[in-house]
Amino acid sequence: MFSVNIKNFRIIPYVRMTGKGKFVKQRAIQYVQNQYQLAWLIKVHGKGTIKSFPVILEGMIILKDLRTNADLDNYLKAIQDALVKAGIIPDDSLKYIKKISNFSIEKGNNNEIFCSLKEEVKNS
To answer: Does residue 7 sit in helix, strand or coil?
Structure first.
């Protein structure tokens, strides 16, 4: 099992972009920079290892300034992208992440990210 808890970091939700757009569109540039910072924090604060794939992704994001029109799936995509950038998972395809369970976004007093990856229990 792998888990990480990151405090005082504001995650930027996924932004659709083209190959060129990530270098010229302001929101895309901010997302890419945020991803590199988040990937580094995942490497530094992460605990445990993953012994087999696929895994189950669980997590919670707490935001001070949560917008009511935010999309859960864009925050989830940002977490998955950062896990790939950090080298925790090779890819965010179904081959490596089989299920997402208990993933939520809540409003709170501080920004915080918690996520865990658990190996899928195989029935014989």
So the answer is: strand
pLDDT at 124: 57
How far apart, in whole angstroms, are the C-alpha atoms of residue 108 and residue 63? 6
φ, ψ for residue 22, nearest 5 deg: -70, -10
pLDDT tens for each residue of 103-119: 999 999 999 999 999 99
- Ramachandran assignment for 103, one of left (phi > 0), alpha (psi -120 to 50 degrees), beta (any other): beta
Q: For the chain, give every domain's residue range.
A: 2-119
Q: Sheet holding 2-7: strands in order across?
A: 47-48, 2-7, 112-119, 55-63, 97-107
Q: Are 45 and 4 in contact (CB under 8 A)?
A: yes
Q: Where are the beta strands (DSSP E) in 29-86?
A: 47-48, 55-63
Give the pairing type, strands 2-7 and 97-107.
unpaired
Fold of 2-119: 60s Ribosomal Protein L30; Chain: A; (3.30.1330)
Q: Which residues pair with 117 in a beta bridge?
A: 2, 57
